[in-house]
């Protein structure tokens, strides 16, 4: 095991503890920012070790689940601390996650892979299953609350919220069964014979367990440091006059950074299927686990929860799913498709800052 991959998670965790004990230090905040980047890179390394040991699609599922569980904890802690002021945080974070994944991560993977390999292949069966499930879950959670009439604004009534949460969780569980058991072959990558993974022996059980423990430490450190740095981020956004929704974008980008790095590295190694597994698996887990958890907290603690996207967000969501459907239709991709997704992602970022 590389020494940096051992030191980075432990050092980031130590700095997280120091930041919690000694808040407000500018130098410590700078060190935390550096440690955050190091922990992201370490998380990617350990996730790849686990993926090599378990094989696809289990390896990518481990990273998606780990990141999403901690993302849920971060959102819930901010909701409980912020009260009514954080009523739209879940919506902003999930919408941002979808835009980052469907356009930013996927677009970057297609562009990097297309430039390096001209064309890349993937299994249409697996990718279309992921996208179909994601469209249904996003509609249940972000679109329908805008059009229901039982409650004002863009919210669900308690029975509607419970139904949407239960259906999101059910769809995610069925998808996991299909991905890992029923049709696992739909999600297996076509490994490049020149890639190291095609020849290297899998790590031992001991190495895999060690990487699992360090992955968990790294992810806790990533989210913890993100939360520690969030006051500075919020202050900077407020000073810049940025809309409140930008906070959700910042949270989503920080939490998704390990998966983004891992997905781009896989695309560069001509393993686009692994990239798509990571990207869409993370988006599905984000909705399938976050919405039920937030719904339970909202109902239990009577927290306000606004899920319905506004008109601009609905247009971007529709455009993203339409372009994604066309991108995944043929089972092969090239750089132009990546450029289109990245332009949509740029439009999302620009319109978030200049609504």
TrEMBL record:
Listed transmembrane segments: 58-81, 93-115, 127-148, 160-178, 208-226, 246-266, 278-301, 313-331, 338-354
Topology of this chain in the membrane: Multi-pass membrane protein
Keyword Transmembrane (UniProt): yes
Keywords: Membrane, Transmembrane, Transmembrane helix
Domain (Sodium/calcium exchanger membrane region): residue spans on this chain: 25-180, 211-353
Subcellular location per the Swiss-Prot or TrEMBL entry: Membrane
Primary location recorded for the protein, binned into one broad class: membrane
Pfam families: Na_Ca_ex
Name of the protein this chain belongs to: Ionic transporter y4hA
Organism expressing this protein natively: Roseateles violae
């Amino acid at each position: 095991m590389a020494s940096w991959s051992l030191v980075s998670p432990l050092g980031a965790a130590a700095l997280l503890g120091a930041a919690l004990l000694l808040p407000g230090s500018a130098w410590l905040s700078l060190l935390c920012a550096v440690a955050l980047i190091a922990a992201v890179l370490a998380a990617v390394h350990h996730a790849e070790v686990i993926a090599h040991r378990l094989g696809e699609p289990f390896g990518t599922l481990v990273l998606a689940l780990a990141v999403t569980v901690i993302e849920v904890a971060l959102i819930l802690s901010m909701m409980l601390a912020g009260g009514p002021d954080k009523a739209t945080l879940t919506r902003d974070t999930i919408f941002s996650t979808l835009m980052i994944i469907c356009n930013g991560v996927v677009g970057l993977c297609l562009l990097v892979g297309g430039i390096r390999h001209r064309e890349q292949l993937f299994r249409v069966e697996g990718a279309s299953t992921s996208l179909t499930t994601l469209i249904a879950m996003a509609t249940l959670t972000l679109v329908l609350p805008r059009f229901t009439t039982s409650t004002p604004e863009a919210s669900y009534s308690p029975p509607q919220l419970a139904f949407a949460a239960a259906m999101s969780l059910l769809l995610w569980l069925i998808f996991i069964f299909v991905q890992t058991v029923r049709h696992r072959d739909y999600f297996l990558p076509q490994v490049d014979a020149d890639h190291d993974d095609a020849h290297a022996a899998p790590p031992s059980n001991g190495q895999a367990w060690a990487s699992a423990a360090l992955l968990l430490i790294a992810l806790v450190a990533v989210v913890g440091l993100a939360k520690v740095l969030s006051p500075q981020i919020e202050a900077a956004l407020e000073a810049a006059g940025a809309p409140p929704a930008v906070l959700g974008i910042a949270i989503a980008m920080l939490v998704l950074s390990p998966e983004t790095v891992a997905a781009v590295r896989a695309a560069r190694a001509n393993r686009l299927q692994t990239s798509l597994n990571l990207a869409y698996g993370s988006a599905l887990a984000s909705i399938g686990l976050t919405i039920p958890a937030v719904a339970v907290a909202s109902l239990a603690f009577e927290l306000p929860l606004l899920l319905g996207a506004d008109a601009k967000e609905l247009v971007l969501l529709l455009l993203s799913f339409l372009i994604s459907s066309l991108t995944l239709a043929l089972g092969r991709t090239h750089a132009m498709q990546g450029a289109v997704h990245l332009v949509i992602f740029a439009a999302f970022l620009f319109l978030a800052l200049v609504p």
